What we know:
The complex is a heterodimer of chains A (266) and B (320). Chain A has 266 residues and is mainly α. Chain A is 77% helix and 0% strand. Chain B has helices spanning 3-7, 9-14, and strands spanning 22-27, 32-37, 42-48, 53-58, 64-69, 74-79, 85-89, 95-100, 106-111, 116-121, 126-132, 137-142, 148-153, 158-163, 169-174, 179-184, 190-195, 200-205, 210-216, 232-234, 240-244, 250-255, 261-266, 271-276, 282-287, 292-297, 302-308, 313-319. The two termini of chain B are 31 Å apart.
Amino acid sequence: MRIFHYWFALWGIVFRELLRFVKQKERFLSALVRPLIWLFVFAAGFRAALGIAIIPPYETYILYEVYITPGLIGMIQLFNGMQSSLSMVYDREMGSMRILLVSPLPRWFLLVSKLLAGVFVSVLQVYVFLGIAWFYEIQAPMEGYLWLLPALLLTGLMLGALGLLLSSFIKQLENFAGVMNFVIFPMFFMSTALYPLWKLQESSEWLYMLAEYNPFSQAVEFLRFALYGQFNQMAFFYTVAAFALFLVFAIIGYNPSKGMMQRKGQ
Amino acid sequence: MRIKAALLGGLLLSTSIVTAETVFVTLEKDNAIAVVDPIAGKLLKTVNVGQRPRGIALSKDQQTLYVATSDDDAVIEVDANTFQVKGKLPSGEDPETFAINSQGTRMYVSNEDDNQVTVIDLITKQAIQQVAVGVEPEGIAVSPDGKWIVSASETTNMVHWIDGVSHEIKANTLVDPRPRALSFTADGQQLWVTSEIDGTLMVIDVASKEIVQRVHFSVPGLGQEKIQPVGVVIDDKRQWAYVALGPANRVAVVNAQSFEVEKYLLVGARVWNLAFSPAQERLYTTNGISHDISIIDLEKHKVTKSIAVGRYPWGVAVKP
Lengths: 266, 320
């Protein structure tokens, strides 16, 4: 196998995902409408929710809309990761997954390519969302938008790997509702996306612990700091470790001889 | 660690050199003044000065800080470099705040409990006159030409126009309830006054001494009772005015030509007083309840930083 073959396969997978994304206009719209509703409706009602605390990376007082924005970026990527996993289940049901997996290229490469394809789509969604937020006076420093890009790649890969791992467990498309209830919602609500840790600690020590060690929280914090041109070391290492863990298990999950596919008789 | 600090170092070097300035803040509950480096965003030191310091200003040569220590019944003189107390001025009882004329020769002190304004000669350091004004005088300002000293009486709801030479009240203007602070435009044509209870800003024409404009404030999501305007400053070009809205935790940005409120900037809790940087590219706010000051970038109209300074920051002065 030469590098050209890898490149060709990567391009094919990314292009297919982009094509799917472009063709499904309602998917793009819903991916955008969801965080915008949270921003314009939910956050507007809680403008003063943060009280008078300054928390890093912010250097002064902020409105709730400003706080929630990195959380909504995380939300876009979380849903996108899950959407990718949904498409994997669909691909498996339709048989196109077999075509992908019989390729002579290594399985891990094919799966990472699939992840990258999903991440590219989520990056597009995030920047369009931030563009709209800009006009709503939610403006980060210009360099923050540049630093956000590598951060988005990492967090997108981590959340995509989680989706991939989950998709190796899901047998049928109908089971995706379970993913919503048992993965997306708990992950999103038990995180720093909507409330800062100190606020969670005020209500419950347990909730605070769960939120602190929730990989989604760490991803959101990594994005939050990057958006303000800062590097959150702990969030970075935590996200990298979570990505590695999810990916390894996803690769095992997609191994026909060892993984979940065999157990489910796929 | 800030990644941008390492990688954008070269870029920062190429930007214009930022003028160093020092911000002095009176801390009402700490009986001290805070010395802040606003460029580094750091509290440098806190210096004890006397009981309940509130009003603060620099002398014309920028070498002396005048601080009204209300509960000591004095305005003290502090060396602006060594922070040693150099002397005391006979301010009368309970001096809350004061104004200095543009020559730096006269100080006019509001004595809230005695309902009077004390005139101090800064050369001889003697009180030369007491002018009886309305009930609870607080805000005080001197017109740029020194012709008028204007004192706002919180309970009488008036601003009193005191002649700069004879020190007699020549006129009174009835204003909205509880006038708190006032400020002349640099051209001396207008006097801007805030009303704490009505939540309004009034623009008074100096020639006619009549209110010519009334600005109302409304912050989305905040009850009107929270909007209590206090400090007001107008830039030298009379392009923008800034009004501290007290418990609304906002500074209103007012277009000084059209009198439209363009923006509300979120700062700390109970914002009291405001001061420009020397070149008017930044504005400093004292936030009474959150114990900090906020720095506003006036080019972008954005709050860039809030710095903890001590308990109950009240007055603010900036040394170039």
